[in-house]
Amino acid sequence: xxxxxxxxxxxxxxxxxxxxxxxxxxxxxxxxxxxxxxxxxxxxxxxxxxxxxxxxxxxxxxxxxxxxxxxxxxxxxxxxxxxxxxxxxxxxxxxxxxxxxxxxxxxxxxxxxxxxxxxxxxxxxxxxxxxxxxxxxxxxxxxxxxxxxxxxxxxxxxxxxxxxxxxxxxxxxxxxxxxxxxxxxxxxxxxxxxxxxxxxxxxxxxxxxxxxxxxxxxxxxxxxxxxxxxxxxxxxxxxxxxxxxxxxxxxxxxxxxxxxxxxxxxxxxxxxxxxxxxxxxxxxxxxxxxxxxxxxxxxxxxxxxxxxxxxxxxxxxxxxxxxxxxxxxxxxxxxxxxxxxxxx
Length: 344
Hints:
This is Phosphoglycerate dehydrogenase. With about 350 residues, the chain is an alpha/beta fold.
């Protein structure tokens, strides 16, 4: 199939879905395309005739409701690594190419996870709480050197986490679609079918998997029962990987020692959630990958891909819509020309 491009001499039309903020530094993109910024309530009117969509508000699910019945733009790019909110049936089954922002968040999230492991081991969240209460309470803390970490998800983010934790002295194992030995970043990788046994061996279980039909609710009451009573759960993947009600029950009952959660089933996390008040839980507002300058990096990646799109060149970070992520083992520069069937 030949690429579907704008008429010769006509710049492509791009709709940018914005939320509370708009991307800055879009001047280069605006020189390449006719760019229109819209909010959710105007998206349906803006999509017909558009060539591409930049989902800047990556938490929005509005694209599914606004998608034209006869098929939408040729290309959709999202300002996040996760694409679960984009993969509605009409988009998956159509010819639209989806790209993500893979590669931008890997190292920042890995640093954040290391920080969470240290905070949990050294009980830093309690120290901060006691300081606020003016309480002098001496405790003993734990070593992380030699502790066992299971990283669930073997994409770039999971690999970066594995490297950081290994460098800090933890013994790292991965869990992914394909089993392998002597992985350079994750050591032994167990298949998802072997996750039950791996959970029982880990001191820290780190979730960095994409949200798919297979992974949704993967950490439920049964999985939590398999974890060690001294183990901690860290989730920087997607909130729906965890059955939150089951997690609350496990934490209250002491079936696991604690959790550090950056993502949740409902975001923002409702004030009524018991997770706010549990003393063995660290709650953060979906910020593990958001470091100074991250928005600029997102715009630069999109602008680079927009230049490729306008010229009919291969795109970076093409998502396999059936898998729900950029194909396993593929580099960040995974490419595909718009309009040509995706590579697996």
